[in-house]
Amino acid sequence: MQKIILLLALVGIFAFTANYVYAQEVGLATFQETAQVIVDKSRSQNVTASITLQSTSIQEIQIPPDLEKNIRENGRVIAIVITNQQQCILGVLDESCIMINVKRDPSDKGIIEIQESTKAVAELFIDEINEAFDTNAEFHSIFVHSDDEINKSLETSGVVSGRGTVSAVYTMPMEDTSSMYEKISAILIPKIIRDSGGFYDTAKNLSLEDKAKVTFSIIPFQNNSLLQLKLSIDYPQAASNLTDLRPLEFLGTDELKRSEYFSSGFYPLNSIFQIVILSEESASISNVRGSTIPTQIVDGEKIPIEIIKKGWVFDPEEGERIQGKYIFGQDKSIYASDLIFSLERDKTKSIDEFKFDESMIILAIIIIGGIGAAVFFLKGYKK
Fold first, then answer.
1. Buried b / exposed e along 110-139 (16+ C-beta atoms within 10 A)
2. 3-state SS class at 165
3. Is pTM, for the whole model, over 0.90?
4. What is the pLDDT of residues 105-124, one digit of tens each?
5. What are phi and psi of 181, to 5 degrees?
6. Residue 206 in 3-state DSSP?
7. What's the rounded Cα separation, in Å, for the pair 331 and 329?
């Protein structure tokens, strides 16, 4: 997890200005769009599909500069999460949430000191957050995260939950996803990006679905913050008997188009489709319809040798956790038929059952979306 956070932080250092990325033959802009499907065969048996728009630039995802600076310089704030997830945390039902996640102070002794210390940090920001996002969230409770099981399996430890994290939870009336996404994207996303279509349009269409939910997060680093707007939808029990995967079905589209925001240059890694498959039993992929991209191993990871052509990179392509990334290359869109493949199980291998709070699954995966581009770019595939 620390490795991923470092990579994302480096994106902000190496790719912060447009002048820098335009000067490159192959560029990586600060703004990224990621579509993701998580097939969970190991715990919930659900399929979760999502679209993430993210940036390390407050010009591309517009939050007040002073708010971003104060969050980043506080030192204890791990993440700010605004969401209308049905149960953002234990004890909250049918309300939207603002969660201010804070590092536990080692000097706090006992639950009362932990609660008071965490609330004191959160109170520094809640009024400004309410003003910036036109919300009226009020204090609900302090939640102390006690274990890391969910984070170990999803590689998100310490960001949304996990031992050492304490959440100050503020709640507000539940808002339907379509209107919430419309409002928050109008606040955050500049008109030039909204008018450029791409994954933003896919997310906007998906927000009309009854089970769709919105999450916006601010994750501070030393020199900038990772800002993520995510539209997700959960399909209960859809993973249990799933062997032939047609991932775009879960995003409600037959065609996934890139944003025209990238049309001024070659930014092949700023629009990526990802799939993650978690399984109790060892599995492998087969019958891949779309093309695959030749790769090389760099620091133990598969990195594309060339990114001009579109295609899959699976790493790993078998085991209890399979991850695939589909790169657009020079194409402006990919189609449902490009992404079809099958999943085969090896029943001779199995893993222990995960046990943790299912209500945190959706929130804990917010940082997964979008990391593929940063990993590919910074691993040195471009020489």
1. eeeebbebbbebbeebbeebbebbebebee
2. strand
3. no
4. 888 888 999 999 999 999 99
5. -65, -40
6. helix
7. 6
